[in-house]
Amino acid sequence: MTMLPFTAEWVAAFHEAIDADLTYRAAAAKWVWPVALVLDPAPEYGLPDGAAAHFDLHEGRCRAATLVAPSRVDAPFVLRAPYPVWKRVVTGQLDPVMGVALKQLRLDGSLATLMLHANAAKALVAVARTLPVTFHDLLTP
User: Among 32, 70, 93, 138, which residue's CB has the most CB atoms within a 10 Å radius?
Assistant: First the structure.
């Protein structure tokens, strides 16, 4: 069964997948900061306020994951992007670190730290790509 990204179901599944992924665990063994992923408002897809997911990541594990209002995001690392960019990241068409470098993904947080842990970021996105998703723009009315 597929799920929509940036929903409570997706956040819970992503949390479980992070903890089960040994490749992520090894790549992120030295990552100790929470991360938030923020979807910009997308009224055309039924998300007029956008959405955000907060992941309490620590040494290769996800201690907690929650869906939050974008205005309530307070993680030290926040990645923000419009819907088409997130879709490209999740489908493997855009590398997240390259997306930050090209300013397609906006980073609130230390770029230097992110670059030092680029393999952890890529491993996290690889985990996201294992989730069975249906994108909002592909739903039939």
Answer: 70
Q: Are 40 and 7 spatial neighbours (Cβ–Cβ below 8 Å)?
A: no
Pairing of the two strands 77-81 and 61-68? unpaired
Residue 41's nearest CA partner among 72, 90, 82 is 82
Domains, the chain, in order of start with CATH, read 8-131 (3.30.1050.10)
Sole residue written with tokens 């970021």: 121
pLDDT in tens, 53-76: 999 999 999 999 999 999 999 999
Higher pLDDT, 61 or 134: 61
Q: Are 26 and 111 in contact (CB under 8 A)?
A: no
Contact criterion met (CB below 8 Å) for 64 and 18? no
Give pTM, 2 decimals.
Answer: 0.93
Do the beta carbons of residue 11 and residue 131 sit within 8 Å? no
Q: Which residues contact 84 (CB under 8 A, 6 or more apart)?
A: none
**Paired tokens of 27:** 């790549």
Helices 118-128 and 8-20: angle between axes, nearest 10 degrees? 120
